[in-house]
């Protein structure tokens, strides 16, 4: 019997072969969803990786909002190179199949495109995004990365389903001893129709896994030792303006 190509490449093999079990596991998340308020509720406390995830249900939104925070090894230079390397999001961003820069407006504003691998049986998603970077400044030691979906920026590309939101505000603050504090808040609307268990799986695992990917990438020699010019100056603790 010929195995569909999708099964060969999907990293969510656990989800593919045990979807009913996964759906059962997510029953606790469904229960949490009904209890969420508009205040952050702790969902996961990964003490091994120093990473916490939170959720809340905001008025007027279909799905939960998320927040993840972590302290990780890395420099501001490496983080900026990672976040502006638009061709390589698949190396660290959850379920990114491909990505590319669409337009550079300025050193602090970009439009880019990402395709996402969806759970088995669900059409893959794509999204056009606008990124605005707010550099550090005197009395503002952190850099802010704001990303918002712009669904109509480019024509839809069937069979991909266009995501309606993949909105995030990420604050990156340098700490002593070569560490960074990363706090990322956001909201995702996958667009189209998607079963509740699939949405819950994405919302529970996506932000957490993305920060783990960031944590790993910040240690890659290709980024740590890169000499390519930065789009603007960044500062670590020892040379803050």
Give an account of the 3D structure.
The chain is of the alpha+beta class and 241 residues long. It has 7 helices and 10 strands.
- The run of helices and strands is HHHHEEEHEEEEEEEHH
Number of domains: 1
What structural category characterises the helix and strand content? alpha+beta
Total helical elements: 7
| Number of E strands | 10
* Percent of residues in β-strands: 25-35%
CATH class: Alpha Beta
The second-level CATH architecture is 2-Layer Sandwich
- What's the CATH H-level superfamily name? START domain
Q: Which fold name fills CATH's third level, the topology?
A: Alpha-D-Glucose-1,6-Bisphosphate, Chain A, domain 4
What Rg is obtained from the alpha carbons, in whole angstroms?
Answer: 18 Å
List keywords for this structure.
START domain-containing protein, globular, ten-stranded mixed beta sheet, alpha+beta, Alpha-D-Glucose-1,6-Bisphosphate, Chain A, domain 4, 25% helix, 241 residues, 10 strands
In short:
GO terms for molecular function: lipid binding. With 241 residues, the chain is α+β, with helices and mostly antiparallel strands. It is 25% helix and 34% strand.
Please give the structural blueprint.
Blueprint: H1 5-9, H2 13-17, H3 19-25, H4 27-35, E1 41-46, E2 51-56, E3 65-73, H5 76-83, E4 96-106, E5 109-116, E6 125-134, E7 143-149, E8 161-162, E9 165-175, E10 179-189, H6 196-217, H7 221-224
Parallel strand pairs: 6-8
Antiparallel strand pairs: 1-2, 2-3, 3-10, 4-5, 5-6, 6-7, 7-9, 9-10
